[in-house]
Known about the structure:
GO molecular function, one term: O-methyltransferase activity
Structural class: alpha+beta
Strand order of the largest sheet: 2-1-4-3
Keywords: Methyltransferase, S-adenosyl-L-methionine, Transferase
Helix content: 25-40%
Number of strands: 4
Pfam families: Methyltransf_2 (PF00891)
Domain O-methyltransferase C-terminal: 2-90
Low-confidence stretches: none
Protein name: O-methyltransferase C-terminal domain-containing protein
Strand content: 15-25%
Number of helices: 3
Amino acid sequence: VQWVLHNWDDDNCVKILKKCREAVLPSYGRNEKSGKVILIDMVVGYNQTKGGGDFSQVQLCSDLLMMCLLNGKERTETELNNLLMAAGFSGYKIVRAIGPRSIIEAYP
């Protein structure tokens, strides 16, 4: 899921994430491992470059844009955590990416 969650309000994000979680759970009765959901999105306040670049202004401007044009927003790690937990995920990991984006691995 790339740059989808920031387009939606919290309630719709939880619905989207619940469907994603269902899709990666193993089928009943099989001995398969669960998958994971990969999200590519901004995490406000999280610096993503290895060189230590600060993208906080880009993240905040994008947040304003999402609020003006859509019913969405860029989220902090705490807000992202709340969405993932409300959708039934057991945990997540944020991986640094290029520019203002992060890769979030969410585990069912």
